[in-house]
Amino acid sequence: MSGVNEIRNTFLDYFGANGHAKVPSSSLVPHNDPTLMFTAAGMVQFKNVFTGLEKRDYTRATTSQKCVRAGGKHNDLDNVGYTARHHTFFEMLGNFSFGDYFKEEAITHAWNLVTKEYGLDKDRLLVTIYHTDDQAFDLWKKIAGLPDEKIIRIATSDNFWSAGDTGPCGPCSEIFYDHGDHIWGGPPGSPEEDGDRFVEIWNLVFMQYEQIAPDVRHDLPSPSIDTGMGLERISAVMQGVHDNYDIDLFKALIRASEELTSTKAEGANKASHRVIADHLRATSFLIADGVLPSNEGRGYVLRRIMRRAMRHAHLLGAQDPLMHRLVPSLITQMGAAYPELDRARGLITETLELEETKFRKTLDRGLGLLNDAAAGLKEGDSLSGETAFKLYDTYGFPLDLTQDALRARNIEVDLVGFDTAMEKQKAEARANWSGSGDAADEKVWFALRDEYGATEFFGYETEKAEGVI
Ligand code: ATP
Ligand code: MG
Ligand code: MG
Ligand code: MG
User: Fold this and answer.
1) What's the CA-to-centroid distance between 71 and ligand 1, angstroms?
2) Which atom of ligand 1 is nearest to the CA of 172?
3) Which of 79, 101, 392, 443 could share a disulfide with 105, CB 3.0–4.6 Å?
């Protein structure tokens, strides 16, 4: 059985042997694009190469890119632990052509790799194309010999890629693997497509147009290719398991958290172990790339991910901070491919331990309040927005942590009420503010307060003064 590390290398070696430069993953913090929260795809580091703004000494590249989809436009956070195929952090394998080869070669490579190098059973594969892309339809027939019904035309934006309202764009084609009829789900485009039976493993983007204005689209003089395959998803297929969390890498991380908490990843504890393993990767890689927990922007997303994991550690009965003790297992699994993890070992460990130590001071009391408030609620009810706000404001519970805590009981949070409580508190603070009498000062004060949130800025309790909001 191939492990994740071999599967990654097979991909990079295949494209390396076919004239692609092996380029290292870029940082999770996209330095060339302040509008992006995190790097969420392999193409991000090549954005300016695709548009021609930047030249490199190669026209073909292959990468295994670290990705986080837990904030901004791409957000899979709520799926994690509950679907078989979503992570907050994952690796995206990709091959890229910058005005070099196009559709035919891209499809040929993809088909060769999955059926020959990876040896997947052709009968289990099906593809989607953009509904008007007859060229892709013909190529899939010619190259892969797929029957018509396994080349599914999709008319939605799922099969048309663009980075924004203008710029390069084009149709895409996704390769799906059928894990078998013992798993619920239907083929893409069907009403059951959200199930886990048919899993998208690889997305091929054919960048062939440039959008100039809403109705004006030109052909690009030299079209390009951008592809992305989820390493964890292809590993699940290769290892004969249907669920990403059953691959070697995740099994090893989950085993470590089972040992440290003396619990099993079964029944009610299963989701907790998965969330912990997933969030361990996301938090460690983010810290290694220079993100630190804070109350705004990227740092707040990191803090939310950390605290979610910490609540699950608490659910498993961990009496002491847990996350930092899992770092060695992560480095054992991924340190060879990503040496930055080992370089940042001290920082990752200390940051996780400090954050968990601080959060545990309010976690117990917050959960007590939450349990009391939710005790009388039944499935389909909502928790009051005021309670959710109090948990956020006084106990440092990010809203999504509260939502996650209520998920198993099918209870939602009254979001309108949450916003109202937040606004009310802001208004009260304004009314109570006697200030310096200087309007300019006041403006700065409120700007800061809005940016950093009420609690940290007020700092009226010791934990809050320490930064636990
Ligand atoms: P899905 O429809 O399953 O959410 P996607 O269409 O959003 O996937 P793409 O943006 O096409 O995904 O990304 C390329 C590939 O990256 C996907 O084909 C998949 O293999 C992988 N991938 C995407 N999101 C995730 C995730 N959250 N966790 C793990 N792998 C992912
Ligand atoms: Mg998605
Ligand atoms: Mg998709
Ligand atoms: Mg896709």
Assistant:
1) 15
2) 11
3) 101
Cβ atoms of 90 and 67 closer than 8 Å: yes
Residue owning the nearest CA to atom 23 of ligand 1 = 230
Burial code (b: 16+ CB inside 10 Å, e: under 16) for 196-220 equals ebbbbbbbbbbbbbbbeeeeeeeeb
Q: Is the distance from the beta carbon of residue 203 to the nearest atom of ligand 1 less than 6 Å?
A: yes
190-219 confidence digits (pLDDT tens): 999 989 999 999 999 999 998 989 889 999
CA 323 – ligand 1 centroid, Å:
26
- What residue owns the CA closest to ligand 1's atom 4? 86
Q: Residue 34: pLDDT band by 50, 70, 90 thresholds?
A: confident
pLDDT of residue 335: 97
Atom 12 in ligand 1: which residue has the minimum CA distance? 203
Q: Is 468 in the pocket of ligand 1 (CB under 6 A)?
A: no
Residue 433: the pLDDT is 64
Atom nearest to 199 CA in ligand 1? 3
Reference 38, options 50, 46, 47, 26; nearest CA is 26
Q: Is 69 in the pocket of ligand 1 (CB under 6 A)?
A: yes
The percent of residues in the chain predicted with pLDDT above 90, rounded, is 78
Amino acid identity, residue 146? L
Cα–Cα distance, 289 to 351 (Å, whole number): 13
pLDDT per position as a tens digit, 122-148: 999 999 999 999 999 999 999 999 999
Give one DSSP letter per residue of 362-427, joined into a string.
Answer: HHHHHHHHHHHHHHT--TT-EE-HHHHHHHHHHH---HHHHHHHHHTTT-EE-HHHHHHHHHHHHH
Task: Give strand ranges (E) for 179-334.
Answer: 198-213, 216-230
The Cα–Cα gap between 209 and 240 comes to: 39
Q: How far is the CA of 76 from the centre of ligand 2 (A)?
A: 7
